[in-house]
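Run log, item B.
One chain of 410 residues. Sequence copied directly from the ordering sheet:
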Amino acid sequence: MSCDVAEHPTPRRRVPARLSRRAGFAVVAFAFVVNMLGTTLPTPLYGRYRQSFGLSELTITVVYSTYAIGVIAALLLFGNFSDRIGRRRMLLPALVASALSAVVFLLAHGLGLLLVGRVLSGLSAGVFTGTATATLVDLAPEQHRGRATLTATVANMGGLGLGPLLSGVVSQTAPHPIRTPYLVNLILVVAAIALVAMMREPVEVTRGARPSVQGLRVPDGVRATFTRAAIAACAGFAVLGLFTAVAPAFVVSLGHTSRAGIGAVVFAVFVASAAGQLALERIPAGHALPGGCFGLIAGMAVLAAGLAAASLPLIVAGGVLAGFGQGLSFRAGLAAINAETPPQQRGAVASSFFVVAYVAISIPIVGEGVLAQTAGLRTAGLVFAGLVAALSATVLVLLLRRMPGPATAG
């Protein structure tokens, strides 16, 4: 008697469904906003941290500046790593680091965890910014690549501005003001992780790739342009650092204690920065960098007047003017560097540019904290405004020296 044995087909491995390119583009833009939002979330809460944890203004500036350590480490280690291992494989760990940062802030009960949370936030932003920008360009149709860069700019600066606004409003209206904003942020990050996990990988993956430290490289032929752009970036990023780290203390010193109001002030500065970057589309290339520097100088003059007169409207107006100048000079400087750098070296040179910019978002702000501790907040703000204006004026002098002199008659 024979017995028939049924043949069972080998089960196929289920391939998870992937989003279309258009849906993937929207997901990455959303994740970009969420990721950058988390990096500025603490801004309106620094006053509460001072009260709850007994921290000084100097310590607050140190907490803020540790963010730059994470960003710079990420840029040096993973600057162009997504070109080899794939965009999704870099975006997901960056979002996980953002989620961990939110968890650390939720659990924070003193200085140590605040520092850890800021470093994790910096690592996340350092990995995510370049990778997400490249991903948006990869996912966009060929004829809309320019719009992809525009979307990246809006998502980046919009997220940075929305962080303080969201945190200020939530902490003002919800219970547990130094915890609830991070719970909201954590929910958004988890949603972004789930969505990014479903996107298609837009680049080929190199197996066995390993991260390696990337040195700062600027080719000889680009150094003059790089120097001018880097000095302007230092001035502009220092302004952004001032408004996300120290400006809340300025506002409170004038008797305005609303965290929602503080968040709105910082939001306005970042919106102005985004507007400055977008304005490059309409301003001739040769006028953009000097125009941005003039904006920074004018903004610092108005800010100094606001500090001297104890006027919140003038402080806000100075921040908006300087924010516009920062956005315009930053994007103009980066565009000039990219135009003069050989294609095979653009990634390394751009990473060097961002490292310089993020050094400027940390060291001057700690100096501001030291001066505020010894000479007072208003004096420190006036000195800071003068230094930013001097840096911007230096760029203008360098640009004037670069201009050809009048032709002489033969």
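Observations after the first pass:
- Confidence is low (pLDDT under 50) at residues 1-8, 10-15, 405-410.
- The longest helix spans residues 111-139.
Flagged for discussion on Thursday.
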